[in-house]
Every structure is written in structure tokens, then in C-alpha cells.
Amino acid sequence: MKRFRFIRLSLVVAVLFSTNAIAQQNSREVIYIKSARFATPLIEKWASEYEKVNSQIEIKFAEGQSTGEDADLSVISSVNGERVENVNQSVSYTGRYALLPVTNADNPLLNELNRKRLNGKRLENLFFDKDNLDEYSDSSDKQKYDITIYSGTNSNSFAGTFASHFGYSAADIRGRKISGDDIFLINAIQKDNSGVTFNNLSYIFDIDTRGLKNGLALIPLDIKKEQREILQEADIDKTIALLENERISLIPVENIGFVYQENNIPAKRFLKWILSEGQKYNQEYGFLKVEEATLSAQLKKIEDLLLTSSF
Fold first, then answer.
1. pLDDT tens across 217-254, in order?
2. How many C-beta neighbours within 10 Å does residue 32 have?
3. Structure confidence by residue, pLDDT tens digits, 253-271
4. Crossing angle (nearest 10°) for helices 40-53 and 265-276
5. Do residues 150 and 174 lie in contact, with contact meaning Cβ atoms separated by under 8 Å?
């Protein structure tokens, strides 16, 4: 009889514990995020680390064709051109991304490109104007090669950012257009030894090995010798350190962040954590930290909004 009572008591405790756990799980406040594919790995890292220290918060990603209005936080950058349309919305930049020109490691023109590094004019000739291939041919045997430029077409492409940096529009980029995410540009030039494109660091480099992805080579730029030598090492961490400390006119660097509602307290607390604690994860995933002045100003703004919300 005692054994039976003990078993029954154990079952009751187990049921109560399970019910309490479910209740706690259901009581967790959910933050929905609308992301872009290139930024998702970093945002997932921010989310997982934030949940570790905030057990009452669950962060989920908005799925499918949901709009920014459906999300508490919506990724904004020069990539997708999203705009703040509501007077009660604000933008907080939480990182930066950089774009580099890249080609197939077996491109027959790579030696010539190494010899005639891309300055501003050559870069524009290559990507935007109908280039004269004689400039990129081997003068010793007059051998001619083709160059195939690849760029993206949709709102999530880096084409607009890259073109705008050099005073052009995405439509001015010549060559082949590939729909879908810009990761497909990397796939294209890995298969085409005449292929040339541009992309962000997290797509060009292997995040695990910290080196370039297989079959890729950076196109040399006509920049300071010390800067060029760092890029030639093809190490993502050294590249990020360089770009965080120096501005290089031939390398576009743009902000990435979130649109949020100013009255959304959980979202603001998450943003405050990203700005104060989450920046240390940016480099791991191929992104630069926010510039110090911008970081301080945004952190102060969010803290002021949180203080206002508490009254």
C-alpha cells in the first residue's frame, strides 16, 4: 500500500512539474524577427546567447512572405532597401558588412589582374562599362580571354550597394544576372573559371576555416601596399580588423541593423544587449562591429526610450 501511495505521489509531482514547465514555456515572451539570409547566422547567434541570460524570452524568425509589419524586428540595410515608414519606428544599426571583388581561382586572367590591380577606373571598366579585354590580355602572346560578370537581381542582392558606392545603379552592372540570394553568385564563379563577381565577407570566406572558400581568389585592388598585403593573406579575421580600422575607398562598407517600434520594450532590450554585449560575435560571422560613435549614440537612444517606457 505504501509503495502504491509513493508511486501515485510521484506521478502527481511529475504531472505538476510538467504542467509548470509547460506554463513557463507558454508564458515566455516571443520576439519575432524578419531577417535576410546573409545575416541570419549572426542573428541566430545573438538570439541564442540572449536567450541564455533571459529565460523568459524566446526569439523566433518570421517565415515565408511575412512583412516587416508582422515582426518586432526587421533587418534593414542597403541590401534590401527597407525604409522606416511609421513615425513610431526607429532604426538601430548593429553591425557592418563589406563587399570585395572575387573570381575563380583558375581564371586565366588572374595573373594579369594581379599585375594590373584594380584602381577606381579599372574597377568601373570591369563591372560597369563595356571593357576593353586587351587591357586584361597577356601582351606576350596576345591571347584573349572572356570575363563573365555575375550579379544579383532581387531586393536582397548586394548589387545596389556595390553600384551605388561607385556612383552607378544596379542596372548598370553588366554581365549575367542571377536571381535569388547572392550566395548563388559564389556557386556560379566556382563553376565558371571566367567568372567575376562581388560579395560580402561571410559568403566569400569559409566561416569555419577562416580562409577563402574553395575555388575562389580575391581580385587584387590598387591600394596601399600594407593594406594589399593583408588582403592577400585571405584571412577573414585580418580583413575585418583592417576594415574596422581603415577606410578604403575601393571597398564598400555598409551598415546593417533593425527597424523596431519605439514602444516595443522586449525588442529594445534585445537591441540594447546586441549593442552592449553582442558585438563580440560580429567578427565570428564575417561582420564588422558598429563604429564607436554610432554605437554610443544608438545605445543612448535605446536606453532613453526604455527609461521613457518605464513611466
1. 999 999 999 999 999 999 999 999 999 999 999 999 99
2. 17
3. 999 999 999 999 999 999 9
4. 100
5. no
